[in-house]
Amino acid sequence: MKHVSSAVHHTIQNYQLTSKSKSYRRLTPKNEKKIAETIVSNNQAKQLMELINKRDYYTKRIYELLNSAGEETDPRLIDDLSEAEHYLERRFTRQVEKMDQVKALIEKHLRFQKEKTAEHKAILEKYADKGQSYQGLSKLKKLNSNAERDRSVAKEKELASFYKEVMQMQKRYAAESQAMLCELQVPFFAGGNKTDVAKQEHVLQVLYKLADVK
Fold first, then answer.
1. What's the predicted TM-score (pTM) here?
2. How far apart are CA 158 and CA 156, in angstroms?
3. What's the CA gap between 155 and 25, in Å, rounded?
4. Nearest Cα to 3, choosing from 56, 48, 68, 60?
5. Closest CA to 203 of 102, 94, 107
6. What's the distance, CA 173 to chain centroid?
7. Which residues contact 9 (CB under 8 A, 6 or more apart)?
8. What is the tens place of the pLDDT at every residue in 44-101?
């Protein structure tokens, strides 16, 4: 009885919300109990549940059909992140040549990061104070101070040159990546689209995950 009452309640509630004519005048909240009891007493519960299951099935099929028809297949026209994710997962990944180019691009960036991290570490180690500090005599202390100052100046100079080079290379890599992603027709990059940077970053994260570069 409980499941019948629930089914009757939700059906009448939906009818009241969606029907404009209200031609089935007995389908009102005050009649829910009577309707449910009559359904049970007439042994129509099974029939009701079968009809509801069929209704739910065909409603779902209708939604699926309409949703499929609303899919945007032109990456230049995609302006929704969920639609972009769907396009990348269901369409872009099937284009093996394009995915290979994306993987190569990601690997290039990872190599760059690894190399520059190693270079930065090497510079810091190069100027680390591994010598013996002079103690006691003022002349030796002065020599020690001068050596530290010279080492610090040389370190900052080399680091400044390193950071400048990294920034220049990052700009070049970014421009190359932008051009490639535009050519590959990636959503929010396709057609040279000047879009929200946050959306582009999100798309890049999705691509990185799909590429599965180790």
1. 0.74
2. 6
3. 87
4. 48
5. 102
6. 22
7. 32
8. 999 999 999 999 999 999 999 999 999 999 999 999 999 999 999 999 999 999 999 9
